[in-house]
Write a structure and sequence with these properties.
296 residues; alpha/beta; five-stranded parallel β-sheet; two-stranded antiparallel sheet; 58% helix
Length: 296
């Protein structure tokens, strides 16, 4: 939940705060498109989220993904849809390495802020929203991202390249350092952090390392980044079929290793998955089964 406070800081910007309130939901790009372009399911999602007093988790990666679309109608519909959900939102980092480092800061008592929260993105949003309102600020943001789509596409490709370089580096270490492969096969019992970012990152990279046939495409890299932090911090995530399977497998591996850190329940488009997701979210309304708020 985002709150714009009626106070100005020393820099003249309004104070703003956000809380990651469960049930938190993360939507991959295809899910945002589906919900924004089908009024019926879009309304069902919005009403269920509001009645469950939940939060939509959103990151700058969502914006970057829309830069890959040339048809402005997709961006306009997504902007209206996301704008209609504010202030029931939480701006999150998408880089799991940043979040892992911030989780360590929480564990050592250096901060009480949510490790996943993107303070920079939140501040930019607050500055824009103070001149209009949250809905209009989000719509304007999407419009700006669409106009800057050529440069954002280059940023997106750079993210993908950096991720696969990291995986190649891991593969090289496994070949050159036998202890690395042995360590990866052992349960990561010390990874039960405030959230499961670290262990999810490690397990999913191990899956990718084992899958030598996985194409090194920007889409695979971006899909990976859509999964790790949201799955660690949300109650539900809507992802594509490949990562739906990988998240389920990761949870099984964590259970076998005795790791109790939470992982979001994944849904995908196949096998009527969107309907199953909406039904699960709707089942939380007024039932007393709403998960407790996450650390914020």
């Amino acid at each position: 939940m985002i709150e714009l406070l009626q106070l100005l800081g020393p820099d003249g910007r309004p104070y703003v705060r956000q809380s990651l309130i469960q049930p938190a939901v993360y939507l991959d790009t295809w899910a945002i498109c589906d919900l924004s372009e089908d009024a019926k399911i879009g309304s069902r999602f919005r009403e269920a989220l509001f009645e469950a007093r939940g939060t939509l988790v959103f990151s700058s990666l969502n914006f970057v993904d829309f830069a890959g679309m040339d048809d402005p109608r997709h961006t306009a519909r997504a902007a209206e849809f996301i704008g209609s959900i504010a202030p029931h939102m939480f701006f999150s980092h998408f880089d799991p390495f940043i979040v892992c480092n911030r989780e360590f800061e929480v564990m050592t008592g250096n901060t009480k802020e949510s490790p996943a929260g993107d303070a920079g993105l939140l501040a930019e949003f607050a500055a824009a929203a103070s001149n209009s309102n949250m809905r209009q600020a989000i719509i304007a943001w999407f419009r700006s991202m669409y106009l800057a789509r050529e440069s954002l596409r280059a940023d997106r490709d750079g993210m993908a390249e950096a991720l696969f370089l990291g995986i190649e580096g891991l593969r090289a270490r496994i070949v050159q350092e036998p202890g690395v492969a042995k360590d990866m096969r052992q349960p990561v019992r010390n990874a039960d952090r405030p959230r499961s970012t670290f262990v999810l990152l490690r397990v999913l990279i191990a899956q990718m390392e084992a899958d030598r046939s996985l194409p090194k495409t920007p889409n695979n890299a971006i899909d990976f980044l859509h999964c790790v932090v949201p799955a660690a911090y949300c109650s539900y995530v809507l992802v594509d079929a490949q990562w739906f399977a990988r998240l389920n497998r990761a949870k099984e591996q964590m259970d076998i290793g005795g790791i109790t850190a939470s992982v979001a329940m994944p849904f995908t488009k196949r096998n009527n998955g969107v309907e199953a997701f909406l039904t699960a979210l709707e089942g939380l309304r007024g039932s007393g089964r709403i998960p407790p708020p996450a650390v914020s």
